[in-house]
Amino acid sequence: MLNEHIARAFDRDLEAVQAMIMKMGGLVEAALSDAAKALDTQDESLAEQVRQGDKAIDALEEMINTECARLIAMRAPIATDLRTVLTVMKIASSLERCGDYAKNLAKRALVLNAMTPIPGAAGSIRRMARQVGLLLKDALDAFVSRDAGLAAEVRLRDEEVDQMYNALFREFLTHMMEDTRNISACMHLHFIAKNIERVGDHATTIAEQVIYLTTGALPDEARPKAELAGGDA
Amino acid sequence: MLNEHIARAFDRDLEAVQAMIMKMGGLVEAALSDAAKALDTQDESLAEQVRQGDKAIDALEEMINTECARLIAMRAPIATDLRTVLTVMKIASSLERCGDYAKNLAKRALVLNAMTPIPGAAGSIRRMARQVGLLLKDALDAFVSRDAGLAAEVRLRDEEVDQMYNALFREFLTHMMEDTRNISACMHLHFIAKNIERVGDHATTIAEQVIYLTTGALPDEARPKAELAGGDA
What we know:
Chains A, B: This is Phosphate-specific transport system accessory protein PhoU. Two copies of one chain form a homodimer. The first copy, chain A, has a single domain, classed as Methane Monooxygenase Hydroxylase, Chain G, domain 1 (Up-down Bundle). Chain A is 83% helix and 0% strand. Chain A is elongated. Chain A has six helices and no strands. Chain A binds chain B through residues 65, 69, 72-73, 76-79, 82-83, 86, 89-90, 93, 100-101, 103-104, 107-108, 111, 173, 176-177, 180, 183-184, 187-188, 190-191, 230-233, and chain B through 65, 69, 72-73, 76-79, 82-83, 86, 89-90, 93, 100-101, 103-104, 107-108, 111, 173, 176-177, 180, 183-184, 187-188, 190-191, 230-233.
């Protein structure tokens, strides 16, 4: 009876931190989408808003970490419960990084605004950001619903993001070769594309943690990963 | 008496995971140094060795996480003890990332080997890697000895690394402008410099966690950080 009572208290606490994770995920998705929109529409105030908004994302990570530490100290969870709490902390850390990438995109949008635009680039970046935002959303949904099938799907779909990155990388290289005045802008655009690709990697990592949590085994390494043109790890 | 016995068991367990952290740190420092050396001396077998060696670093992170989870479940630490265990997991996660950057450097060294070299670049990269390796070592030493003074010093010294990165960024930009045939090589070199700069950021993060652990407060944000030429977050 007492044990059951404690177990329910743990579940309640866990639900509360999971709600914080979903809120954090929502903020990160919006930041990414707004930053890409700010780049595409040259909207400086939107870019500035994304930069400022990152503080709220960082604060949520702190809150989640504090709450998880409290949960571990108060409820002393073991086995799957403990693993779940540790996974929550890892996801919060991933989301904080993704928030940084969105902030960075916003900063570069402001810089790129002052340069001659590369035709088509901002639109491609925005499409890539949209794709990655969906990936992140699905990874978090898979976590909350402990849906290993959806998680497996996220892992596969990250390959499309890698292919989008590869196509952009080659496009930017061509623009730089054609006219050296494009080099600075293309360096910034390349960094943006690389960082969005990294958000996709974080979504994959979250998906892999969901698979580990639900099946007890890490997926084998045979994920069909497009070799990145930038040659990144 | 019983409590004292349990406390000592916790300290013993903690010392064991700290030893694993130091071992992991040693492997990451060596990987970084070897990868930079492989680039500088065009040593393909050394580069290949670094690439293969990353598996051992990843395996150590897994072991540390498992051990920390076991420690939390068995000893139910609270307050500073719990915070210490969570910090160990964060440091392991940072080191795993740094290992990835070293592996990535090794991969790019192999690619760059087939290109016309950029004069002086590999030497500069190697000096930067050496500087960052020392920073990482000092951050870990500060953690194990709970030395807030050394940790504060690490934070300040990261600025030098940022300045080295800025200088390299401008150098690569110049080479690309001068001759478009340099663009591919400079893109790879720029990524390498950026990743080494990120290892410095991880060393700073570890140092900040040491300050938090020893003083209970996060250092204020007034770290004298050089604005990065690449404009990164």
